[in-house]
Amino acid sequence: MSSLQGIDADSRDYVPSGQAGHGSFTLRDISVLAFYNWRLILCAFLLIFAIGVTAAVKTQTQYTAEGRMLVLISREHAGNQSAAGLTASIISVDGLKAVESEINILVSPAVIREMVARLGATYLFPELAERRYLGLLPAYSEADHLGRATAMVRERLSAQPISDSNIVNVTFRHPVPEIASRVVNEMLEIYLNRRREIYDNSRLALLTTELTRTSSQLERLSDQIEQVKRSYNIVNIEQEVLLAANQVDTILARQRQTKERAVALQAQIDEARTKLAATPLRIFDFVETTNNSSNNDDRNILLKLMLERDQMRQHYKPNYPPLQDIERQIAVVRQSMNIENNPFYTTSRDVRNPTHDFLASHLLQLEIEASAIDKQLVELQGQLSESEKNVTRMREANSQLRELERSRMLLETINREYTLQAETVWIEEIAAQNKDSSVRVAQWASPPVIGQSRMPSFLAAGLVGGLLFAGAVGFAATRFRQVFILPAEAERRLMMPELSTLSETDPGKRLEQAQDATALLVSRLTETRIDGKLLQSIQIVSDTLTDDFLTVNAALASEIALNHGRTVLIVDLVENGETLLSLLGEDTAVTRKIVGEIEIAGTAIPGLGVTRNATLSTLCNPRAPMPAIRATLDSLQGEYDMLVLATTPRHVGPMSQRLAPLVDASILVLAAEETRALAANDLRSGLLDAGGDLLGFIFTGRRFYVPRMIYRWL
């Protein structure tokens, strides 16, 4: 591909300005793009700014109520300052976690939901009961009030620890100061209640219930044990069992002893009967001879009288008559005793044999004892049977009591464990109550006096957001725009140089302005040589047929003919030359000539001709063979120094591609705001693929959107 970048005899490859080290967009280009899309950008800016203004107008002054909560941290959570005060107090990570945990409990959804339920969702946010979006949508249902009010409270609620302290600052924003302070106070109160519930040990109630149940079971078991003891007449089962066993043993021992005694008694009875039978009934006792008769009481009387005499002598004189009388009585008694004629009496006696009596008595005792022993054995047998029954009863009672005692011991163990655990849980509750006092409200919220208005913020946000959105919209419009409005855009997209730019022209001076715009280009074209030869044929191609397309062809050809002294023929393959002749002016004095099959008309410019029926010639026949097309071009080049071919767009016919390799060079004409980038790129690729050489493009219809007083400073 040849290039006219710095037109001279030497050709070089084109390097786009973006790849040559220059910026893709200059401030002038950006200004042009901004002014080109000014309506869209202005609408975008006004839309966002209007939203900001609307928000600023509808926003309400927000009052922030503030409450403070003190979290007391024990030694386990914070290091203490030394006594000398040389080292600073260091709050450990545990202390920070404790404060963070309290904050998480405070702002938890459950606490907020309970607070909203207490105060009422519509009391906090009356707009929940109103129609939404300027009355276009109905109000939220009552079922959604609690959830949406909770979410709105979470957005406005803040709980943050004050730096370097363990004080938590709780704030809430609301248009009504009283509601703001009430929300904070309710939140703190509900939080404290919820915290008590969290640290409340619910095991105490369970342990108390279980302790009561086991105590009742113990009482029932004790009653059953007492009932068993009463039914069996038992005080102590171990002693009763021992006594019953001992009683059986004692009775057995006595029974054995009694049986032994019965055997011994029977032997004694038999022996006593034998001895008794051999013993006589009576035996000699004694013989006695005496002169004392029976009823002789002299001695006793004498003794008595002597005693009385002695007694009276002590008190009376010897001549006392009673005393003398006693003396006479004594003498009479003695005299009676000295009488020698008292007769002698002899007594002989036989007595019963004492041995016989003893044996009879002993035999009788033995028989009585034997009879008693027989009855004793019967009684002992009855006692033994009763004792054995008692042992059986004690065994049954022992079995029942053992089972009951085992159950009672188990229940007592369980009851003891429950009692210990209850005491432990009670101590834990005391500790939890002490822990609950580690969080205290340092400041209850009061209705704030000074509020904060967000109107300036919304206005600034609307302004900044409008500018950003407008810039984004402008960038998007530029990015997705498919037409060119600047030559630099075409250069970047097509990788081709800009040869000339034709601005929006005055309809009355269109040709003159086009000639002035293309004068430098024409000078370079006439000086350019290919393979040592001057250019002889140029193809002007456009994807869009506009009024400027034929004007460019006329301006190039007329400039070459007028100022460079070369004959030029404009081969009009778009029309029949009527438009070109109206621009250039037809010279009726010059006779039309026919070269081959093409009719050529003269113009008011000497040496410049325009074809009249080229659209009907071989040059517009896509089925014509290449030699015939080349022959037609050769015949025309034989008559003129330079041929300017105005060919049809590619979407009309393929002749521009067929003619591209037959001409010396091709030039694209891009119409501002009309030629699509994809179509222009497709046209460029088609010409290059066909083997043609592209010099660049001419940009037509360019508009200056930026005011000149601004544009000249860019």
Give an overview in words:
- The protein is an alpha/beta fold and 714 residues long.
- Among the domains are: 60-78 and 87-199, Bacterial polysaccharide co-polymerase-like; 297-337; 484-711, Rossmann fold, CATH 3.40.50.
- It is 56% helix and 14% strand.
- A nine-stranded mixed sheet has the order 7-17-16-10-15-11-14-13-12, sandwiched between helices. Strands 2-3-1-6 form a four-stranded antiparallel sheet. A two-stranded antiparallel sheet has the order 4-5.
- A hairpin with a 5-residue loop joins strand 2 (157-161) and strand 3.
- Helix 4 packs across helix 7 (177-199), helix 9 packs antiparallel against helix 12 and helix 10 packs antiparallel against helix 11 (321-337).
- The two termini are 34 Å apart.
- The relative contact order is 0.11.
- The model is unreliable at 1-23 and 75-91 (pLDDT under 50).
Strand order of the largest sheet: 7-17-16-10-15-11-14-13-12
CATH topology of the domain at 484-711: Rossmann fold
| Contiguous runs where pLDDT drops below 50 for at least 5 residues | 1-23, 75-91
Count of β-strands: 17
- Beta-strand portion reads 5-15%
Number of helices: 21
The CATH superfamily of the domain at 484-711 is P-loop containing nucleotide triphosphate hydrolases
Choose one word for the global shape: rod-shaped
Q: Give the distance, in angstroms, between the N- and C-terminal Cα atoms.
A: 34 Å
CATH architecture label of the domain at 484-711 = 3-Layer(aba) Sandwich
Percent range of helical residues: 55-70%
Structural class: alpha/beta
Largest sheet: 9 strands, mixed
